Amino acid sequence: MDTRAYIESGIIESYILGVASPEEIAELELLCTQYPEIKAAVDAFALVIEQQAMAGAITPPPAVKENLMQQLAGEFAVKQPAAIFTLPTTNANDNISIQPAAGYWKFAAAAAVILLVASAILNFYLYSNYQNTNTKYEALLTEKNSLQASNGAYQTRLNLLQQSMDIVQNPAYTLVALNGLPGKENNHATVYWNSTSHDVYFLSTKMDKVPQDKQYQLWAIVNGKPVDAGLIGDCTDGLCKLKSIEGASAFAITLEPKGGSINPTTSAMFVLGSVNKQS
Amino acid sequence: MPDTIKYTETELVLLLKERDQSAFGYLYDNYSGALFNIVLAIIPDRELASDVLQEVFVKIWRQVALYDATKGRLFTWMMNIARNASIDVLRSKSYNNSQQNRELTENVYANAGTTVTNTDKIGLRKVVHSLKDEYKILVELSYFEGYTQDEISKMLNIPLGTVKTRLRNALLQLRELVKN
């Protein structure tokens, strides 16, 4: 819209002087909210009229104020006798007076809000610290448990090795070294045999990897005949106890189908070693 | 005035709404002269005008909660209260009885625009006085006597549209006179 024409139409003056019609008032107040320049023109003319009235001020009789103060005496707010502080004023155009009670409460409210915020921040800080510590504690606990478990495993293994050492060092046991046969020269194994208690222990020194469906089987040669001395399972940790054998002259290992055989498959013999009687 | 505190309009209104006595005293000291000017321009009788002024301040005090600063200046609001209160008195029976030589309400057609007499030196009257006659009547009837444009149109037997345009032109001219 043409705000300039509107401003210059005289409607603003009608409005300020109170002679505009209700429709004109409604229209102007609406336009004031939409066009800052119209609002500014309204304010400007209001100020002109105000200044004109101020300049032409006529002091009324003093009785008017006295009467007024008497008439309205019961309607004034009761003043708090508490500390009243007014900001000292330097510039007459720009002075501020602060209501004492409101000021105090504002200060108290501001202090309370600051304390609340500070407390909230501290709480948050402490809580996150607590969470952190808790997480670390949980991690340590897990680590400790896993260390304990592996410690247990090591202990078991150590015990096993200790037992193996006892057997190896025991003079009652005869060491039988099994060496690789032609074509299987890379293979070596050791058998510890107690000729008195007949206990047989096997130590896998170096054997070829076993196919999935096969298994090594130890044979003892007793009186020239092979006797089953037991299937060799997973025997990586120390010595493995196999079947007791009496009167063995030699030991041999063959590769047999899983579960073992009654008679050895001599074509699949890997290592062989005879017992050296050293008594 | 021993009181050296000066409030901004916003502070003053806030304190008045909080029923602060010293703020009311400040309001009176600061604006009574200007508002008396407004009242006297309509009610030339000083004694009667003083009564009206007192009534005006009572109204301001009791209605300050209704004042909306976003709609305009405090003085504009107070000025309208002063003008309306004055016009109410002007139109009251007792006032008209006291003005023995004039019967405004009953013979307004004849007297329209001719009531400007001894108040010519006061406030807006002084300015209006220097307008040309056809403008002067309209401002007189609308601003000083509070007639609506519709009423004026009938009183003067001029079309409403003409009253509207002419009054606006009159006020524009008045604006220029006030500014200078």
Q: Show unreliable segments of chain B.
A: 101-117
Structure class of chain B: mainly alpha
What is the first-to-last residue Cα distance of chain A?
Answer: 128 Å
Number of helices of chain B: 10
Largest β sheet strand count, sense and barrel closure of chain B: none
- DSSP summary: helix tally of chain A: 6
Largest sheet data of chain A? 8 strands, antiparallel
Q: Please write the CATH class name of the largest domain in chain B.
A: Mainly Alpha
- Kindly report the average pLDDT value of chain B: 84
Protein described:
Chain A: It comes from Limnovirga soli. Chain A: InterPro entries: Anti-sigma-K/W_factor, RskA_C. Chain A: Keywords: Membrane, Transmembrane, Transmembrane helix. Chain A: The chain crosses the membrane at residues 107-127. Chain A: This is Anti-sigma K factor RskA C-terminal domain-containing protein. Chain B: One of its GO terms (molecular function) is DNA binding. The complex is a heterodimer of chains A (279) and B (180). With 279 residues, chain A is of the alpha+beta class. Chain A has 3 domains: 1-76, no CATH class; 98-169; 173-274, no CATH class. Chain A has helices at 3-7, 11-17, 22-34, 36-55, 62-71, 100-169; strands at residues 173-180, 188-194, 200-206, 214-222, 225-232, 240-242, 248-257, 269-274. In chain A, strands 5-4-7-8-1-2-3-6 form an 8-stranded antiparallel beta sheet. The radius of gyration of chain A is 55 Å and the shape is rod-shaped. The longest helix of chain B has 22 residues, at 21-42. Chain B folds into 2 domains: 9-97, Rna Polymerase Sigma Factor, Chain: A (Orthogonal Bundle); 104-179, Arc Repressor Mutant, subunit A. Mean pLDDT of chain B is 84; it is low at 101-117. Helices cover 68% and strands 0% of the residues of chain B. Chain B contains 10 helices and no strands. With 180 residues, chain B is an all-alpha fold. Classes of the chains: A alpha+beta (279), B mainly alpha (180). Chains A and B meet through helix 2, helix 4 and helix 5 of A and helix 2, helix 3, helix 4, helix 7 and helix 10 of B.
